[in-house]
Fold these 3 entries.
Entry 1:
Amino acid sequence: MDPHPPKYVMLPENQGSIRPPPYRRNVPRYQSKSHKSGGNCCLRCICCCYCFLVLLIFLLGTLAFYFYAVYQPQVPSYKVEEFTTAHFDMKPDFSLYTEFAVTVKADNPNSKIGFTYGKDSSVEVVYQDSTLCSGQIPAFHQGYKNVTMIKVILKGKSDFGSGLQEALMDNRKSGKIPMEVKVTVPVSVVIGEFPLRQFKVQVTCNLVVDNLTPNKKAGILSNECFPKVEF
Ligand SMILES: *[C@@H]1O[C@H](CO)[C@@H](O)[C@H](O)[C@H]1NC(C)=O
């Protein structure tokens, strides 16, 4: 109610502002022109970005294709070759001291890619989710088309519990002892002379051996290894 009277009062006061409309008529033309050129600029920018992106994707694709064609990368394979028990001592308190010598065969089938195995590795022998013993593989470089036997000595004392001890005794009697050998190792991929970034490789081998008799090489009944790479 009150705002209406002020509006009528305002008009005479704004007489000066009535003039601008003619100017404004002109101004929009310039503005619309400048808007148009601004839009063109934006469009050009987006176009450029698109062209650049397409080019980049094309280049990366070509590079990847070239890399695969020239280097033909292949995943190395692993296998437990030998499993020998040095100690297998069940203690009356249900703890178990074990010492195994495990030989893992690492096969690098690549003819242009090498691998460097780092220091901070770990190897574990696991029986029914309990770690029996552990060790480390030595750091080494594996060249092209190379097969290396990695010998690892694993030692450890585990608190075993009577249940597991019984299960293991049963397995030993039946001559089928399921074990897991877990290897975790940092691996650098080396192309030519250039080491690329390091990956954490985890190899899990499901193993069934026929005996755990000290100082006797175990027969390996089943042996499947699954490599997994953590990026
Ligand atoms: C494979 O690499 C290992 C470790 O570098 C080396 O000791 C061995 O001689 C190589 N084997 C062959 C067949 O080149």
Entry 2:
Amino acid sequence: MQDLSLHLMDIIENSITAEATFIDVVIERNEVDNYLKFIITDNGYGMDAKDIDKAVNPFYTSKAQRKIKVGLGIPLFKQNAEFCNGFFILESKKNIGTKITVQFELNNIDRMPLGNIGDTMLTSIIGHPNVNFRFELICKNKNVKMSKFVVNTEEIKNELGDVPINYPDVVQYLDELINEGIKKTYMEEH
Ligand SMILES: Nc1ncnc2c1ncn2[C@@H]1O[C@H](COP(=O)(O)OP(=O)(O)O)[C@@H](O)[C@H]1O
Ligand SMILES: [Mg+2]
């Protein structure tokens, strides 16, 4: 995985596989306390303690017939965070949902770049029109006290009525909205 937006994509895909109908993603870039944090919450089918153990252990996966993990999504994300003075917490309840909190030291020399977070947001939203997403971007830096951006597809879908969220004009609108949000919150790295 070359950047954090691709790691995030992988976590979102896990939630989709787990039949989530709502996925909440909070990304906080905090230059004051020097961290970059992701919190991903879903209402998918969740995991019991044994499943959690398997997901975090790099040598097993719940996919049928497979003893050696191929995905490695979770263990790699965890390892990357821990390499960067951060942490990875996986909380889950069977039939309730899953919450993943991943934190990186923002200015750590080994921290992967954020990558194209706008692409991850847009691709998730238009690729899964039946799933509701809430993306929240938060930035705290020394000049701007706090800057926030939220996109909530449930609200957008209500306004759209019969028009599908992946209708070309809507995609264009979402693309602009997301990119404005990224600029407003200084989420992009320079
Ligand atoms: N949000 C989730 N809800 C339920 N189960 C999950 C979730 N995320 C991960 N899992 C479980 O953990 C396993 C490991 O995930 P991951 O490391 O991304 O590898 P892969 O997706 O290739 O199996 C998944 O196969 C799945 O069983
Ligand atoms: Mg995966």
Entry 3:
Amino acid sequence: MSVTAPSHGEPLIRGDNSMRYRPFGKTGLQVSALSFGCMRFSEDQDLNTALVSKAIDCGVNYFETTRYYINGSCQHKTAPGLAGKAAGVIVSGKEGINPNQTAYLFLREIERQLDILKLTHFKFFQVGWFSWAMMPHLLKRGGVLDGIREAVDRGLVQHIGFTGHDSPENFIKCIETGLFDSITVPYNMINRSYEPTIKRAGELGVGVVAMCPVAGGVLAWDSDKLKDAVGMDMPQAAMALRFVLANPDVSTACSGMNTMEQLDRNIATARDFDPAAGGFETMCEGLDRLRAELGDTFCTACRYCMPCPQGIDIPRHMQAHRNWRCFGLDAWAREELKRIPAEQSLDNCDRCGACEEKCPGRLGVREMLEELAGLRNGGKK
Ligand code: SF4
Ligand code: SF4
């Protein structure tokens, strides 16, 4: 679907001294390599405003928002920094889709989010929490697509993307419909599950917004294993961002930032990284080798093992195990185990084995929980 409205045709801002730009799929837009995820703002509104304002001054031209982040305050916290600077900047909004969603409700939500952000239109609007199973609710008469079409006709929206947590295969089916200009998915060194989807998006000219390039802060923790695997020696968060930007099919790496240090570091990384230097295949081979060391004991976070009769959050523990054993994030894993509430902790395991019977990968969950207990108690194994 081409949804480019004839109005609002101003070019996006550029700051070539401080930022690099990439084609945003087939939209004709040049998006900044670093984009700003507005879901981690703090209570310090002066800082939030300064962050958005400085990011724009440095050439960041994509800001990801929705009314629902940060207990409903995300767009309120974003708007002051955009004041007087929003022309030439993509501010994306997002509304969810569900069986009860209608064209009318979707359109009203677009208007509501524009009102909060004090914008006249969205250059991008995302269909949020989308999945292949939601396609009928998008396409039905009087459904979400009808609402989007009216928004486009009225000049409230120019381009449409989607985001969600369906399987990579289903998301490939979604982008192959040709209905969307972009896809937003999590992607980083330790979560490459959407890599095939990103590749297909690149082939189809669909823009890719890579969320969580630093894995929600996990990759800010040092790991010699990861550095060796990708052949880089630099602060880990910078390395993580470089990996995402090295993927030629990624349009922009969307990082949730709430400190000036993070913003400055990410801008410097995005500015200094020359995608022409290549190296993506070599990095992937190094990461594949790490994963191969674990063999079949790689939790895919499918959650089929849940619920645990003892209340244990099994996937969270398995993620900690994976990040420790596969990627060498020992210190992060120890801290993560301390953060898990007592009622969801591995200490409650009675070794019933129910999880292992339900796990498609037949992971040895009981043994892995014991290994984690050893790590938490000071050992490495
Ligand atoms: S073996 Fe432990 S983790 Fe698995 S289902 Fe039983 S109590 Fe839960
Ligand atoms: S079923 Fe297995 S692979 Fe899926 S989340 Fe549970 S442990 Fe991980």
